[in-house]
Specification:
34% of the residues lie in helices and 25% in strands. It contains six helices and eleven strands. InterPro entries: SNase_OB-fold_sf, Staphylococal_nuclease_OB-fold.
């Protein structure tokens, strides 16, 4: 009986199966891949309506720039993702590649996302080179979301009040 229980638990604990195909960007760290919604692991990109600032203080739409770059990367060929889990919104949490290149690593290396658990060397290089968001000032995406909860719809609003 214990062996059967262990086998069932192991089967339930398996990550989702790999997914591949054509993808469409939602923002700088998530996209649709066929019927699946995918959130890249190990990075956090500026929110779509988030602005950042150049060194001279001029604002620029860094959230849109991140989404646009993601769209160009996804257009480079079939996307291959290895999901590790599913989040509370039903999105696959995955690492993904296009033409053999890690999409998350490219977004962080180009200064269009910050590292959040992976891609530390890519972030260090982007900081050093003052690439993308590192060329001026910006709010970390997590901080920006906390400061702007109204843009996330009813579910986001409920989350901010602890429901």
């Amino acid at each position: 009986m214990l062996i059967l229980a262990a086998m069932v638990a192991a089967a339930l604990d398996q990550p989702p199966a790999p997914v591949s195909g054509s993808a469409r960007a939602s923002d700088g760290d998530s996209f649709r891949l066929g019927p699946d919604r995918v959130r890249l692991l190990g990075l956090d990109a500026p929110e779509l309506s988030q602005d950042c600032f150049h060194a001279d203080g001029q604002s620029w739409p860094c959230g849109r720039a991140a989404r646009d770059r993601m769209a160009r990367l996804l257009a480079g060929g079939p996307v291959h993702c290895r999901p590790e889990d599913v989040d509370q919104y039903g999105r696959l949490l995955a690492t993904c590649q296009v033409s053999g290149h890690d999409i998350g690593a490219m977004m962080v290396a180009e200064g269009l996302a910050v590292s959040s658990g992976r891609y530390w060397s890519e972030e260090a290089n982007a900081r050093r080179d003052r690439a993308g968001i590192w060329a001026g000032d910006f709010d970390a995406p997590r901080q920006w979301r906390d400061d702007h909860p109204q843009g996330r719809g009813l579910l986001g609003w409920l989350a901010t009040i602890g429901l």
